[in-house]
Amino acid sequence: DTAVSQTPKYLVTQMGNDKSIKCEQNLGHDTMYWYKQDSKKFLKIMFSYNNKELIINETVPNRFSPKSPDKAHLNLHINSLELGDSAVYFCASSQVRQDYNSPLHFGNGTRLTVT
Amino acid sequence: AQKITQTQPGMFVQEKEAVTLDCTYDTSDPSYGLFWYKQPSSGEMIFLIYQGSYDQQNATEGRYSLNFQKARKSANLVISASQLGDSAMYFCAMREGPYLSNNDMRFGAGTRLTVKP
Asked: CA-CA distance, A4 to A26, in Å (whole number)?
């Protein structure tokens, strides 16, 4: 019954590897997001995806790419992992993007550790 | 530029007392939404309360209330009758719009609240 689920919960990998984090929402929402939470707990938007329109935060390296097979899924693929990519990654969803009144519903996060 | 400011990195409160967590924001858009989230040590993000820019009354949800002062651009969270389980990080957030092409939710730096027994 989990509204937004992401897997895996923990991911430990070595520098240079490629990894993916999966996200699924069963809320029927139109918009999905990826956020990065750094070691100081600061949450920063990485991507938002709505009806095949992708908005990318300009500071996100192109090693990060979101992939959406359908409206309920938004996976995050990371190439050539670096030490600085270590963080907690949150998937989230909301209703229509333009609805500024809608809260985001978050997954439980994926803690990525790059060694 | 940072649009959401939380000036209290850490706060302490005695159990059963009330506590106010500060949040100020910056926007030139007349339409916006303000949100508070709780992040306990287990890591999940829990939505607590919402206030719309056109709302005349302050939002309340159980023991949570939002002290919305529009002219001052502040949206402080008030937690009444604190409980040990309220110990967590609290984030203030904002969405602008609806006419912006990008009205994604932006977060403040957070306040770590510790409730003392």
From this structure: 7
